[in-house]
């Protein structure tokens, strides 16, 4: 199932990108956005690429020293001061937002990709004085509440492999949507899953019944049939 996360930005959007990176740093993440990316504009191809150079030490990692490259669909719609709501959107509590940032990750996403998506949007909402919305929750909350909620969820899963199925960073994908030269590197394999698959492939040892036991069982059967037992 895909997950859509939205940020309804408030009025404090000056130097927002720098403040988002700084907030990530305060949470013990080191992140970079693709060069020439502007968080207040829809990127070419409507996809935001994020490099995760460092994650909090409390999070379990398969390869803790490997930078990660994650991506998610990303679109920005700036709004006029007196813009009206259409079909109940944006939610009434966020009707005065200056912009709507809409993102999506598809089913099969890595845990790293989802949390990069959710944290980026929650921080943008918090730093701008706006609101945060996740479609599976269907609840619009403040950016501060959204960030706190996302952090709680992240650390509730701290024993799971944060980087399993994520792609290691090797280079930035091209900005041009028409450039097909980029190939995603192979994802990082889950240690837990690999151990499970290896165990499933290991042939089970068959229990051999000793010959003496077989003879004893056969003799008992014969005596039983003959009526001696």
**Terminal-residue CA separation:** 65 Å
Strand content: 15-25%
Helix content: 25-40%
Biggest sheet record: 8 strands, antiparallel
Integer tally of domains? 1
Question: What does this 3D model show about the protein?
Answer:
The chain is of the alpha+beta class. It has one domain. It has five helices and eight strands, in the order βαββββαββαβαα. Strands 1, 2, 3, 4, 5, 6, 7 and 8 form an eight-stranded antiparallel beta sheet that branches. Helix 1 crosses helix 2 (111-128) and helix 2 (111-128) packs antiparallel against helix 3 (143-156). The relative contact order is 0.19. The mean pLDDT is 89.
List keywords for this structure.
alpha+beta; 229 residues; elongated; 8-stranded antiparallel sheet
Brief digest:
The protein is 31% helix and 21% strand.
Question: How are the SSEs placed, and which strands pair?
Answer:
Elements: E1 3-9, H1 16-26, E2 30-33, E3 47-54, E4 68-78, E5 99-105, H2 111-128, E6 131-134, E7 139-142, H3 143-156, E8 167-168, H4 191-201, H5 211-226
Antiparallel strand pairs: 1-5, 1-6, 2-3, 3-4, 4-5, 4-8, 6-7
Helix pairs in contact: 1-2, 2-3
């Amino acid at each position: 199932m895909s997950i859509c996360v939205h940020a309804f930005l408030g009025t404090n959007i000056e130097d927002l990108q720098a403040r988002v990176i700084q907030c990530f740093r305060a949470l013990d993440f080191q992140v970079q956005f693709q060069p020439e990316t502007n968080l207040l504009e829809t990127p070419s191809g409507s996809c935001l690429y994020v490099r995760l150079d460092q994650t909090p030490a409390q999070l379990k990692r398969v390869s803790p020293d490997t930078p990660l490259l994650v991506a998610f669909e990303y679109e920005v719609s700036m709004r006029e001061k007196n813009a009206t709501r259409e079909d109940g959107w944006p939610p009434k509590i966020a009707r005065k937002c200056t912009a709507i940032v809409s993102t999506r990750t598809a089913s099969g996403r890595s845990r790293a990709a989802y949390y990069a998506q959710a944290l980026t949007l929650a921080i943008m909402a918090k730093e701008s004085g706006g609101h945060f919305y996740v479609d599976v929750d269907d609840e619009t909350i403040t950016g501060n509440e959204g960030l706190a909620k996302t952090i709680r969820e992240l650390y509730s899963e701290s024993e799971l492999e944060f980087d399993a199925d994520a792609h290691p960073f090797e280079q930035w994908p091209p900005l041009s949507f028409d450039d097909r030269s980029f190939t995603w590197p192979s994802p990082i394999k889950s240690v837990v899953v690999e151990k499970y698959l290896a165990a499933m492939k290991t042939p089970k040892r068959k229990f051999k019944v000793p010959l003496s036991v077989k003879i004893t069982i056969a003799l008992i059967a014969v005596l039983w049939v003959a009526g001696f037992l």
